[in-house]
Design brief:
Shape of chain B: globular
Helix content of chain B: 25-40%
Distance between the termini of chain A: 20 Å
Strand content of chain A: 5-15%
Number of strands of chain A: 6
Structural class of chain B: alpha/beta
Strand order of the largest sheet of chain A: 1-2-3-4-5-6
Oligomer: heterodimer
Strand content of chain B: 15-25%
Strand order of the largest sheet of chain B: 1-2-3-4-5-6-7-9
Largest sheet of chain A: 6 strands, mixed
Order of helices and strands of chain A: HHHHHHHHEEEHEHEEHHHHHHH
Amino acid sequence: MVPNRPWPCRKDSRPTSSRPSAEILNGPHCGFQAVLGRMDEDGVDWSDKLKEMFDRTYLRPLAQIFSSPNIRAMAELRLPVAMGRLIEDSGLRASIPGRHTNSLILETIYGLLERHYRCEYVYKNTIAQKILLGRHRLAGATMATELRCGMSKADFAILNGTSTVYEIKTELDNLDRLPSQLDAYRNMFDKVFVVAHHGLAETLLDSLGSDVGILAMTKQGTLRQLRASESHAKTVNPACIFDSLRKSEYMPIVQRYFGPIPAMPNTRHYPYCKELFTTLRPATAHLEMVGALKHRFCPSVDKEFLKTIPGPLIAGLFAAKLSENQAKSIAKFMGLEYALF
Amino acid sequence: MYYPYFRGRQSELLAIRDTVVKLAKKKKVVPIIEPVMIKTGGLKACLEAVKAQHPHVIIINPAVGDLVQQGSLIEGLITPYLAVPANNLIPGFHIGSSTTQAQIIAFLAKYGQRETVLVFESPNPVTVQGVLPRISAMTVPPTLVFIEGKVGPSLINLFTNQKKVLLRDGFVAKNRNADYPPLDFFSDLHNTYTGTGFHGFGDFSVIGDVFKPGGGPAHAVAIHLTELNANQEIYTNHFVSNRTTGAVDTPGKFMEALDKLVAHVHSRRRAFSFSQARAEFEAHHANQHFPGLPSVKRLAIRHHLELMEALV
């Protein structure tokens, strides 16, 4: 029998509206198995509202297992308590009785997300797996997260010989900020893609400028390119690029192009360097940025090692910026038997 | 007597060290340090600097930070200092909502032969009633520190034969630096504490009674400088950078805030003449130098310590 605790997620992540109905939690088919069983059955009259409640109750908090703090916890060989509780309380554990590795539990969660709750992490990880590990050679490519870009933040970019930024719009997102985000990205990145679920992607073809590439997430969970991105490398804005760099990154670049930086108070470095940097040709500024960011986000492990990591963890591993030792440790954790506490 | 309360992070500990020489003169300032960092190097250096200079309190059971439940680690650290009475190290105990009578009694049994400090922050009233006879029977009565707003007057009034200290959080913290007004009332407790039966008073410096581990990139730079006005009340000046968005050019934003600070202290030379920290701010201004945000915080705390030292 699945334990009956109304809200297994952390208190502060508790949704404010629509508590799960008694049917989900206490009914004869309580919890996870019953709900997902019904979701997977064709022809069942599945109430949207009930599904929404289930998503909020369990799938949204379960997706947090791929968040950076939780990844780092697992790299210390421990399953975060809140996650363990959720795995038990949601009924997920009861749906796969027997002894399993942590890896299998994670893959089960990811599989559920792929089928029933395609949150941003699923998109990110799909891109990471298929583009980063597929087409790009990891030796020359790296994944950057949380990049400052004007007043926006680029969640996800790939750096190889050039830069490609991906703005993810899931079924769960709204599009209000998309135009201003894309404007900011054009100022900084060579290729700009919007990644959206298939329905939305089709409509974006017309509504977005033709310089922006579009990738559709298909029903099967694969990526399909509807349009390639034009190159923006020659039209980027060096001032915007400069502000995304750290002092330790822009100082050597300025020195290389304009000679040694004269002695001056440290509060003068920023305006002095920025003035010079903005005289660089856009393509040059962009190339220097790619070099600097590749160095900043340099992966600590190689492609061969990544192949030994469960697929669902790839994007999380990069985003959490794990060291080589941490990465090895999480690989070990994945092979251990799942145990609560 | 003035009892500033510090959650002992690096800036706080360094500010205490910076002020040792001044505080050693009158010995009327007793910093209370609640250690919060697992890396205890800063705490050790601070203990080494203040030993035998002026009295100071170390809380052995921190309620926040890395060292919650790590009392034995802190006790191990202070034991050698406690062995030398001239060091003036006073063991302190934090009494929160979940602290039990047995824990308080164990603390008093262990350290009660010497001077001790009990800090009351949202204690369980039943627990306090329970330990009252034990505390009253002590031959060396502990100094009792109450955090205003978290302990009611009726509970404070239960204690009649002990030295009592009232802590008031005068710092009005905002979530974002950009939101600070130019001036805030801080406190006038130093004028009133003796009249209300207290032996001492204190505050949470220019940090406030909120423990926030770490921080993000600063979008605005703010410098908090306390000041005594003509009515003998303390106010906090908040000097905020002109630019308050984007995480770029922190040094330049610091200089914007520092411009305002220097203009202000120039207009009130005599009111700030005592402050060594103010002099350092002016030196940074003259050199157009950004010492880093932790150093800015350290100077602001140091300035407030100097101000209070001059008042008590």
